[in-house]
């Protein structure tokens, strides 16, 4: 079963047993995240129009690289529903766990957005299709 998020000018479906959190501020960026029962998560950050996608990817990647050890980043591009996304694939250690993450930036109308999703290495391959389904649904809406 799925639940639907419809706020902040965006709409997407996600697994109903996942927990949703929304940043309640009016400041930019605005954000919403969905968390799996194992604490893997998919997060959407919506920025002010006019913000450069490349700069957003760099800022998110740099913030993560400062926080975590053994950080690796590989540039990535992806096309979903005819939309070009830029970003990077990441791996790093958090405590004793190897974590995989993906950063993707795209335009939703006039709004630049960044999607960050991550999970522990052992479960990432299983969760990646779920993260991609959420992203596809967001773009399709």
Short synopsis of the structure:
By secondary structure, the protein is of the alpha+beta class. It is built from two helices and nine strands, in the order E-E-E-E-E-H-E-E-E-E-H. The chain is 25% helix and 52% strand.
SS summary, helix count:
2
E-strand count: 9
Most strands sheet: 7 strands, antiparallel
Percent strand: over 45%
Spans where pLDDT lies below 50 across 5 or more residues: none
Assign the CATH topology.
Protein Transport Mog1p, Chain A
What is the topology, as strand order, of the major beta sheet?
3-4-5-9-8-7-6
What overall geometry do the principal axes of the alpha carbons give? globular
Order of helices and strands: EEEEEHEEEEH
> Under the CATH scheme, which architecture would be assigned?
3-Layer(aba) Sandwich
Determine and state the CATH class.
Answer: Alpha Beta
Number of domains: 1
Average pLDDT confidence is 95
What does this structure look like?
This protein has 141 residues and is of the alpha+beta class. Helix content is 25%, strand content 52%. It has helices at residues 53-67, 121-140, and strands at residues 2-7, 10-15, 19-22, 30-35, 41-46, 69-80, 83-94, 97-108, 111-120. The chain has a 7-stranded antiparallel beta sheet, with helices on both faces. A two-stranded antiparallel sheet has the order 1-2. A hairpin with a 7-residue loop joins strand 3 and strand 4 (30-35). The longest helix has 20 residues, at 121-140. It is globular. It starts with a strand and ends with a helix. The mean pLDDT is 95.
